[in-house]
Design a protein that fits this description.
The chain has 832 residues and is α/β, with parallel strands linked by helices. It folds into seven domains: 103 residues, P-loop containing nucleotide triphosphate hydrolases (Rossmann fold), CATH 3.40.50.300; 245 residues, P-loop containing nucleotide triphosphate hydrolases (Rossmann fold, 3-Layer(aba) Sandwich), CATH 3.40.50.300; 54 residues, Arc Repressor Mutant, subunit A; 155 residues; 66 residues, no CATH class; 50 residues, no CATH class; 93 residues, no CATH class. It has a six-stranded parallel β-sheet, with helices on both faces. Strand 3, helix 3 and strand 4 form a beta-alpha-beta unit. Helix 14 crosses helix 15. The longest helix is centred in the middle third of the chain and has 22 residues. It starts with a helix and ends in a 5-residue tail after the last helix. About 8% of the residues have low confidence. The chain binds one DNA strand of 9 nucleotides through helix 2, helix 3, helix 11, strand 10 and strand 11. Pfam families: DHX37_C, HA2_C, Helicase_C, OB_NTP_bind, WHD_HA2. One of its GO terms (cellular component) is nucleolus. InterPro entries: DEAD-box_helicase_OB_fold (IPR011709), DHX37-like_C (IPR056371), DNA/RNA_helicase_DEAH_CS (IPR002464), HA2_WH (IPR048333), Helicase-assoc_dom (IPR007502), Helicase_ATP-bd (IPR014001), Helicase_C-like (IPR001650), P-loop_NTPase (IPR027417). It comes from Mytilus galloprovincialis.
Amino acid sequence: MSNRVAKELNLTEREVSYQIRYEGNVTPDTKIKFMTDGVLLKEVQKDFLLTKYSVVIIDEAHERSVYTDILIGLLSRIVPLRNKQGNRLKLIIMSATLRVEDFTENRRLFRIEPPVVKVDSRQFPVTIHFNKRTPLEDYLGEAFKKVCKIHRTLPEGGILVFVTGQQEVHTLCKKLRQTFPFEGKAEQKLKKSRRKKKESKTEILPKINLDNYSIEPVDEEAEREADDSDQEIEDNFMEGDDDVTSQLGEDLQTGGTTEPLYVLPLYSLLSKDKQSKVFDPPPKGCRLCVVATNVAETSLTIPDIKYVVDTGKVKTKFYDKVTGVSTFKITWTSKASGNQRAGRAGRTGPGHCYRLYSSAVYNDDFEKFSLAEIIRRPVDDLVLQMKYMNIDRIVNFPFPTPPDDEQVKAAETLLVSLGALTEPIKSVRMKDLKKTPITKITPLGKVMACFPVSPRYAKMLALGHQHDLLSYVVAIVAGLSVQEVFVEMQKPPDTDQEQDDFRSQIQYMSQVKKLWAGTGHSMLLGDLMVLLKAIGSAEYQGCTIEFCQKHGLRYKAMKEVRKLRAQLTNTVNMVIPDANICLDPKLKPPSDIQAKLIRQIILAGLADHVARRFPDPPPDADETLKKRKHAYQCTELDEPVFIHPFSVLYKQKPEFIVYQHIEETSKLYMKGISAIESEWLPVYAPSFCTLSKPQEDPPPSYDKSKDQIRCHMTSTFGRCCWEVPSVDLEYPANLDKYRWFARFLLEGAVVPGMKKYVTMLLSSPSTMVKSWAKLQPRTEKLLKELVAAGVDSKESLLKAWQKDPKYLLNTFCQWVPQSKHTEIEMTWPPVK
DNA sequence: GAGCACTGC
């Protein structure tokens, strides 16, 4: 875009520039900057009034992406602020006309209705054809029939078919290729045509089989005929013929054309080179037919499409607002998206769109628009970003479409548990009691907000600088943030050879994965270790296509991981002063100890994603117990969940694990598994633990290296109150902690200068922690003074002495005989 | 022993 505009304005790239996440060419001379919504959002965080700009244009606002929505909310406040300053900012929101009311009629957003400028689209007319009836189930079969019919009866022009997923894309491609074989016949024809060319040497080539096409546009009669033939086929199908394909194939081969069809798959996860085939002209004498998912609706535009076949279906990811469990469901699209799909037929000339559903279904069952993204996904990252901008009351923000309270609440709860937000402060004022309590960003939260990843991963990065682990954590987080690093789905095999190849590839992959996982702590890091090794070894080999293919890695994904690793490495170095890491293409695998520490960091980020294995049910168990075989219990869910079979820990089944997410397919499956130890829970997931009282045996102690009072405590974890064994922890902050500190101080464990008086103390230091200690004034006095100055560690004690060198002097004198008082006064404070 | 649409920091 920036290139093209620069050219048309006769300017250079220095003046018309662009900026996206990973790259840009902005210079000090830049006057017009093209950027993504996320980039502008980051700029608002740095300079709220966007003082660098005089005009902001938001394009594609109707797509309602989360960052665009938030930007519009922010800009609705920034524009008046700039006006007040006398430094005007113009805002132009560009949106497909249909949806403009979302912005213009929202009085919370724009107090005064903004003027609307309508611009007609430059589109060729597209004739819409609805099906008379809507197929109940087999929309794929219906799509197949429609493509056959178009190809058989209508003039030349590319066909674009919308289906919902890669499997469907491949299935339909295969069926179409079988029916209109391209190889063989097509090649013969091409040879023939070449021969003809040589023979006649005419300048005008006869178009292949032009006679087979009806040149007239389809009239209603033809349509009715076509529908009738549909009826016939469907009736036959209803009678119990399972294989509609073969029948259709016969029908078509005997009746109509066998003109080859050049069929291409298209979906986002497809490799770049396979995707870009759709942009090349099809071989001579062939009609192009692209079978695509939603990528072809907005992201990619295929040239020369004259016919669109729309199943009307989409596959969408859904989240459970409470549990966070995700599922994929196939539903009707929206009217807006249906029209967008139809529009794809009218880019180079008049076109036709065949909708495989009735107009009644379209009118009654289709929503006007697809739901805005912000109400369909967890918002924890957005809430953190907004709190970072000091927007504390999320509910008051002028969202074009506000996320619902449950989503926001879940996000705040998570962020509080991660330590990114303060515990909610309940207002004491009566009138505020009904309001939701405010949570504010913490210093940790501010660090986390700087990392462009999910808050859980940001927490891992914030902890990773300890023990030289940051390079590993960066690589793992980068890997986790990129979708589908491993090729786990295959297109259905076309031949026996392919089938065998797939099988051996899958076997080889699972061996490699096992090898990558290793043993010991490395193996217990589980799927994340496999990910780390995959990234490490791919980079070591220079991230070649060959290496990726051989090891079942998606090349595009690995490239993305590389870029994200670089970005995270930069950010980490900027945000964490002592980080100082570099992007090492030859990163060595972590040591056993490091792998253990990484597991602990992973737990700290996924404290709410812990699961525990159910005990194996006995042979005579009832149904509910039987369902728990190999199953896990997790904190948020009542139903049993399972380790996904792709996990390296699938067979291992460790007792305690953390998972990245749960997806519901045939079962509730956890993915991205690492094993943890239950003793770690109180340390790395403290907000989910309820601690017991400090145990008497073993007794509390003073840890010199940590300068902490330590004690043993048992605890329970989570909603289901799992018992966690006794572990050594810092003594909880309460009055008893001061008592124990006083005791260790008197025993000479804290400052060496007090050691020599231990034998002459008038009461035993242990009286400090006895319940009857109140009876003695000297214990009471010491305790009071420690509490008053907040002294419960050596560090705080030294500070208190810095302020007041006589601190505790009188009190301590009460513990030792009079004869020593002068000496003590002379050497106070007893630091050495 | 499974089965994932799409995009932005």
